[in-house]
Amino acid sequence: APIGKPSGALDVVSDFGADPTGAADATAKIQAAVDAGRTQGREVYIPQGTFKVQDHIIVDKVTLRGAGPWYSVLTGRHPTEHHKAVGVYGKYASQGGSSNVTLKDFAIIGDIRERIDDDQVNAIGGSLSDSVVDNLWLQHTKCGAWLT
């Protein structure tokens, strides 16, 4: 059964309008939810659904939690800029990195069919310190987690 929304959490669908059908790009709406979660000190919940994400979601000092890896799925690749694809990234070390991030209970399903070393098309990337990754399903990305 799907994991329900934690008390007090922000919901990417009901609070920010992300499309859970996978038809519309949800990148900006999920990023807005993550940014609000950090600012407000609240968890961000990804309910059951398939969310089209065509670029990195940047996380820092926030918890991003789904309904379970079989229920909350982030997937996608930019239609024209093929070096952009679904991924949850901390800020790069050159930008100060990210810390105190929890990623839990969702799936990242990429559409990477070739390896181009310079492309940042990993499921999880960037720089994350004092952070937790728990119960994620990562598939068809260049690398599951590539962290500095």
Approximate strand percentage: 25-35%
Write down the oligomeric state: single chain
- Helical residue percent band: under 10%
Largest sheet: 7 strands, parallel
Radius of gyration: 14 Å
Question: Count the strands?
Answer: 13
Structural class: mainly beta
Topology order in helix (H) and strand (E) letters: EHEEEEEEEEEEEE
Low-confidence stretches: none
N→C terminal distance: 35 Å
What does the average pLDDT come to?
89
Total number of domains: 1
State the helix count.
1
The outline comes out as globular
Features:
7-stranded parallel sheet; 34% strand; mainly beta; 4-stranded parallel sheet; 148 residues
Brief characterization of the structure:
The protein is mainly β.
Question: What is the secondary structure topology, with strand pairs?
Answer:
Elements: E1 10-11, H1 27-40, E2 44-46, E3 49-52, E4 56-59, E5 63-66, E6 72-75, E7 87-90, E8 98-99, E9 102-109, E10 124-126, E11 128-129, E12 132-139, E13 145-147
Parallel strand pairs: 1-2, 2-5, 3-6, 4-7, 5-9, 6-9, 7-10, 8-11, 9-12, 10-13
What does this structure look like?
The protein has 148 residues and is mostly beta strands. The protein has one domain. The protein has one helix at residues 27-40, and strands at 10-11, 44-46, 49-52, 56-59, 63-66, 72-75, 87-90, 98-99, 102-109, 124-126, 128-129, 132-139, 145-147. Strands 1, 2, 3, 5, 6, 9 and 12 form a 7-stranded parallel β-sheet that branches. The chain has a 4-stranded parallel β-sheet with strand order 4-7-10-13. A two-stranded parallel sheet has the order 8-11. Strand 1 (10-11), helix 1 and strand 2 form a beta-alpha-beta unit. The N and C termini lie far apart (35 Å). The mean pLDDT is 89.
